[in-house]
Amino acid sequence: MPEQPISIVTATTLFPNRARPSHGVFVKTRLKQLLASGAVEAQVVAPLGWMPPLLPYPGATHLRQVPPRETVDGITTFHPRYLIVPKIGMTVTPWFLYHAMKRAIGTMLASGRRIDLIDAHYFYPDGVAAAWVARDFGLPVVITARGTDLNLIPRYAGPRAMIKAAAEAADGLITVAAALKQPLVELGIAPERVTVLRNGVDLEFFHPVPREAARGQFGMTRRTLGSVGHLIERKGHHHVIAALPHLPDTDLIIAGDGGEMPKLKALAATVGVADRVRFLGAVSQQVLRDLYGGLDALVLASSREGWANVLLEAMACGTPVIASAVWGTPEVVASPAAGVLMPSLDANGVVAAARQLFADLPARAATRAYAEQFGWEPTTQGQIDLFGAILARRAQPNSAA
């Protein structure tokens, strides 16, 4: 451990705020584990999008109620605003985000705060903007890629060029799954410059609970699947609903909120399973833990996932999973004790995987034991080592920084 804590600024639009307490919770979770080590101290710059009040923007009313500065789970968090421009936002957002981040970090430096390193999450636009800020202030920057930012966004020429430039300029590059390393290599980044630090799970918080009590809490009387995540198309809740007619002995509980809820309820009615599907809406982590504990299996039928935390959370509670074999997910579900990967990304894939899982269901203790290899300690130590190596390199007399 260094003589004094490394002082970082975590810069990302993916961070909780009082209007959206679950937004980017995975970034907060990783940061809290890092802070708990005592080797790092941090403040967060989490810019919020802004549009003129007369223009429609989903969630704008709630976001305007978020103060410029707040404390999020004990972490001082700044929310500078950046302009959102409809239709051409993908091209210009990095520039507006850069100015917002620069204002906030410049104010910190002017107040006398020591900043050793910028810790940026999500490559585009966040990482691109953070790289420009780091250049301006002569600070090192580490960028963490999380999924869509490398697997989809680089398909567009402009963003691809900016991502490549940011990756080349960054002092450190992290991906949350080995599968996300390849897109950087394809952009021309040397493989040895990329560190894979997968997400972990809080094994103390997510743990097996009394099963019958949990089932009673949610009124589970038959085999019950769960589907957890924002109610958006790419999370694949519709695949799980469409599978139910072929799983007549099975109910479904969906936890999450979002614009797809009316569409999902209509689908359940159309396929004749509305009486077997319940929507909980957004729930707390405590409720989610109890839900995992009562379920027979969690299903994640996403079309895109970098490293899905809900899979590890469920397994840590002893609940096996059924998951789509996309991106980093095969690295998470890599043993029969963990669960089963879907053979196809559709309702038939859910049905086939469910039948396979329940034909040879792992013991819940075995699923919990599997999850225990995914504690946060290796990821936390990996960040500390990477940050320390970067600062040591910069401190050398002949450093180009």
Spell out the key features of this protein.
401 residues, alpha/beta, 2 domains, six-stranded parallel β-sheet, 16 helices
SS summary, helix count:
16
Helix content: 40-55%
Number of strands: 16
Q: Sheet with the most strands?
A: 8 strands, mixed
Overall pLDDT score: 93
Looking across the biggest beta sheet, what order are the strands in? 4-5-2-1-7-8-9-10
**Which CATH architecture of the largest domain is right?**
3-Layer(aba) Sandwich
Q: Using the coordinates shown, work out and report the CATH topology of the largest domain.
A: Rossmann fold
Low-pLDDT regions? none
So what's the CATH class of the largest domain? Alpha Beta
Radius of gyration: 22 Å
Task: Describe, in plain words, how this protein is organized in 3D.
The chain is an alpha/beta fold and 401 residues long. It has two domains: 6-200 and 376-395, 3-Layer(aba) Sandwich (Rossmann fold); 211-374, Glycogen Phosphorylase B (Rossmann fold, 3-Layer(aba) Sandwich). Helices cover 41% and strands 17% of the residues. The protein contains 16 helices and 16 strands. The chain has helices at residues 25-36, 60-64, 89-110, 123-137, 148-151, 157-169, 181-186, 211-217, 237-243, 261-270, 285-294, 309-316, 329-332, 347-359, 364-371, 377-395; strands at residues 6-11, 40-45, 48-50, 69-72, 75-78, 81-83, 117-121, 141-145, 172-175, 194-196, 223-228, 250-255, 277-281, 297-300, 321-323, 339-341. The strands form three sheets. It has an eight-stranded mixed β-sheet with strand order 4-5-2-1-7-8-9-10. α3 (89-110) runs parallel beside α4 (123-137), α4 crosses α6 (157-169) and α12 (309-316) crosses α15. It starts with 5 loop residues before the first strand and ends in a 6-residue tail after the last helix. The model has no long low-confidence stretch (mean pLDDT 93).
